[in-house]
Amino acid sequence: MDRFMHVLRFALAAALLTGPPAATAAAPPARVRFATFNASLNRTALGQLFTDLVSPGAATTGVAQAKRIAEIIQRNAPDILLVNEFDWDPQRDFHGRTVLDLFHDNFLAVSQNGQPALSFTYRYSATPNTGFSPYDTNEDGSPDSSPPAPSSPNFLDFDNSGTAVTTPGSEAYGNDAFGFGEFRGKYGMAVYSRFPIATASIRRFRRLLWNAMPGARLPDNSSSPAPADWYSPAELAVFRLSSKSHWDVPIDLGGGHLVHFLVAHPTPPVFDGAENRNGLRNADEIRFWADYIDPARSSWISDDQQTRGGLARGARFVIAGDYNADPAKGDSFPGAAQQLTSHPLILNSPIPSASRYSNNTTNTADFAQDLRVDYVLPSRSGLSILDSAIFWPLSPHPQASLVTTANASDHKLVWLDVRPDVSLDAAVQNFAATWTGNAVRITFSGAPGHLYSLQESTNPAASPWLPVPGADPVPLNPDFSASIDIPPSPPGRRSFRLAISFAP
Fold this sequence. Notes:
Blueprint: H1 2-18, E1 32-41, H2 48-54, H3 61-76, E2 80-86, H4 99-108, E3 122-124, H5 171-175, E4 189-193, E5 203-204, H6 233-236, E6 246-252, E7 258-264, H7 277-292, E8 317-322, H8 338-341, E9 374-378, E10 383-390, E11 414-420, H9 424-427, E12 429-435, E13 440-445, E14 450-457, E15 466-467, E16 481-486, E17 495-502
Helix pairs in contact: 2-4
């Protein structure tokens, strides 16, 4: 029986490691389009974006720009979309709609320039860090108290200008906020989805402190002999890692098959001094996702509800956003972008390009030096890349004028089509094969939304795989555990495999 046990264990292990056959049921769709777009839907004062979006018939520059942004999105028709630089605003119209809903109802869901209207039933936005003063502890837009004297150890002056600015509306105020913004909510984020968002499971990391990150790249004040002391102890006790926010937005692609939409917008690595505080922060904001997706590196992380840790092994994810870092050039900290583009759990090939739009580039931002800073990066586990593009047409393409910085945004929409696949790490856990005295017992923990079939063959290279009686499909207990007994075989070798597919 020892030899039978050895042969059976080896065959099943090989089947699991090399992956299951292609899924035969399509609970998730065969193709899902993810997109990110820094749409420059930011304005110069709180409430201006609301005014533009609530009045789509107004002949204003802001309304015209919002219509062009909506047209760009309609031409690319994503299923799941992140919009960066989308001002957060708590006010609502007569129907209770915020800017998140108004952009959808008045622009995306209305045909722009003959393009098919889009419907995103599921939407999400939340408060960012931008434009929020550390002296506004209840976050109502007004400081709770006046700053103490600069000599006080409790003086909070994030840019070390000698003045703590608490009145919104100026660049100096933005420099003293948790994230740069002349008013609260500037440069926010919004998520639109055709698939249900698991709202109760969203994780936000807006309040996570920078110095909570092991090995944080804290900036140094060169005028002091102490290391990493640009921020005072009082400032480090409140200063946040995320300049806007980091969100884990779980989205149900069907049958309970989730993909974690991991979105952020790290600070630009410029607009600082020799201490490089923004460049260092940008690198650590990017590093956050690199740690979050790896269970071996995520134990230090705590979300705004004090839940610790990151993603489970094998979880599907898509990282999206304007990360303000190019892997090869620009002003970002060396290696900042590569924390994601070279991560072993992330697919970064093929790299999206604009070649189909008469523009042979992989850059996504129209700066003085064009850069690749906007990313849609899927997990290696559970997703396959089918297609991708950057919507950056150049003349003589008919949409060349649509996407210019003056007409729309200095960033270009990036989309990626993926196919949801069975993730072995998520679908099979705690696999074991043990000898009971008269049979080999196969046990494992399955997952919702999957079908499992134990199959056998006397010669895998030449003979078909046939279902094992009573194990096609494998019966699962209410907790999705399984136990299958395989009696000894007649003389001759048998190979077994566990085939996994999506449940209908």
